[in-house]
Amino acid sequence: MKRCAILTLSVLAIGPASAEPVELAVFRDLLRPPPTLQLTYGDAPSQGIDVFLPDGSGPHPVAVLIHGGCWSVATAGREQMRHLGPDLTRRGVAVWSIGYRRANENGGGYPGTYQDVGAALDRLAEEAGAHHLDLSRVVFVGHSAGGHLALWAASRGSLPAASPLRAITRLVPRAVISLGGVGDLATFARFVPVLCGPGIVERLAPADKLSEVSPAALPPAGVPIFLVSGVLDRLTPPWVAYDYARALRGRSGRAPQLINVPDAGHFDLVTPPAPAWQEVRRLIEASLGLK
Questions:
Q1: Which segments in the chain show pLDDT lower than 70?
Q2: CATH, range 8-287
Q3: Residue 140 · residue 66 · CB < 8 Å
Q4: Which end of the chain is more exposed for a tag (fewer CB within 10 A), N or C?
Q5: Residues 75-93 pLDDT 10s
Q6: CA nearest to 139, candidates 290, 291, 287
Q7: pLDDT (0 to 100) of residue 7
Q8: What are the extents of the domains in the chain?
């Protein structure tokens, strides 16, 4: 029997308000240490994985990080998430931070961008033993455009057999955490040219392929989904998460949990020591069974 998904809203109490949300310039200037190792799964420089490993013999729980940046080569790739590696490994969490060809990159868009994300996740399944990673404790965490890809990746096993994006799912996350991400491309598409530039959405989500690439058009992943939004986010405001959750209403499975973080902007969600990131980190740890 199908049960109606009930929209759940949580407002996190994170203590005193910060003076101002973290701005892009501050986020860009964060110190980004090199990863423990880097792996490649293709010939393009963006087809790589940054791996941060905790001390100890493991097996380690894993946070799969998927970077944002408007699906565009105009922004940094997986390097922009490197500052989160040490913050998580200090708490015993391994980081598998994936790069992918962006929409306006040679070979990117549909289907390349999505195939890259799938290939990077498949590589995790292959390499887990060598790096003492616990595949029973994995969480997908995507920021901004990466939130869209994290939500998509969790549902890719439900794609039609004829789709070039269909693959046997080798990895089931314990949860998906979308940080200022886009779950409903149909409703957000009109904003992409303004935010990201012309041609991005057409290459990323051709009109006749929208049902394969918009998470809102796919069956729910069957795992807990958390949609975290900064109340002061000017790029992907909380209504973007609401659109995705509304699209899933009435379907079977778990309802996504909407989490609005007061006094936080787009980049607070991925900027230590911002209070918003501290709450995101606690959510990652709880999803992995660490707290």
A1: 1-19, 252-253, 291
A2: 3.40.50.1820
A3: yes
A4: N
A5: 999 999 999 999 999 999 9
A6: 287
A7: 36
A8: 8-287
- List helix spans (H) across the chain: 24-28, 84-89, 112-127, 145-155, 185-188, 192-196, 200-204, 210-213, 238-247, 275-287
pLDDT of residue 239: 97
* Longest Cα–Cα distance in the chain: 52
Beta strand 94-98 with 175-179 is unpaired
Residue 139 is predicted with a pLDDT of 98
Length, in residues, of the chain: 291
Tell whether omega for the bond before 111 is within 30 degrees of 0, i.e. cis. Answer: yes
Instruction: Tell me which amino acid residue 28 is.
Output: R
With vertex at residue 271, the alpha carbon angle to CA 288 and CA 177, rounded to the nearest 5 degrees, is: 35
Looking up tokens 């929409």 gives 103
Which tens digits make up the pLDDT trace of 244-272?
999 998 776 678 999 999 999 999 999 99
Torsional sign, CA 175, 181, 184, 185? negative
Six token digits for residue 275: 């209070």
Please state, in angstroms and rounded to a whole number, the distance separating the CA atoms of residues 219 and 210: 14
DSSP letters of 60-80?
Answer: EEEEEEE--STTSTTS--GGG
